[in-house]
Amino acid sequence: LSQVDCFAAASGPGSFTGIRVGLAAIQGLSDALSKPAIAVSTLRAIAWHGSGDLRAPVIDARRGEVYGGLYTGALDAAQQETVTGPAAWLDSLPPGGVEFLCRDGRAAAALTAARPAISNSLKLVPAELAGSVGRIAAGVLAAGHVPRAPLEANYVRASDAEMFWREW
Fold first, then answer.
1. Per-residue DSSP letters for 12-46?
2. Which of 102, 125, 126 lies closest to 114, judged by CA?
3. Which pLDDT tens digit goes with each residue over 51-80?
4. Which of 28, 41, 90, 151 stands 20 to 30 A from 17 (CA)?
5. Are the CB atoms for 156 and 67 separated by under 8 Å?
6. What's the whole-model pTM score?
7. Do 140 and 38 meet the contact criterion of CB atoms below 8 Å apart?
């Protein structure tokens, strides 16, 4: 552990429990060892696998929705990450020249069902994102942009507990 320069974890969107556990683990290691910790958006980590000037990573968000983002080739956010229906998300993107990146067939199927023509610009990336999270975090560390505040989860949408708390 003394050779570790920085800890990194995906910050979401994704499984609420998985995101919380991952961030808590690296925050704990970071605090205990006085090492920096960096949270990386899951969508940004997916975009890392692309090669286009505009990269649109997408994750199946269930409930007929997708988590989507738009990143430049330098992995800078070109639009705010969102959760919405596949057609609405596709409509929010600039026309042409967008590379679509998915980790699984569910997200790819949702996109092609909404717009069959995009299947030609759709790329499946590895489901395992630890490598891209680590590489992005290494770049952030090298640039000296390490946050000092506790890590924040990037849920994009509220959890069921938060959405339905008034019903309890």
1. ESS-HHHHHHHHHHHHHHHHHHT--EEEEEHHHHH
2. 102
3. 999 999 999 999 899 999 999 999 999 999
4. 90
5. yes
6. 0.92
7. yes
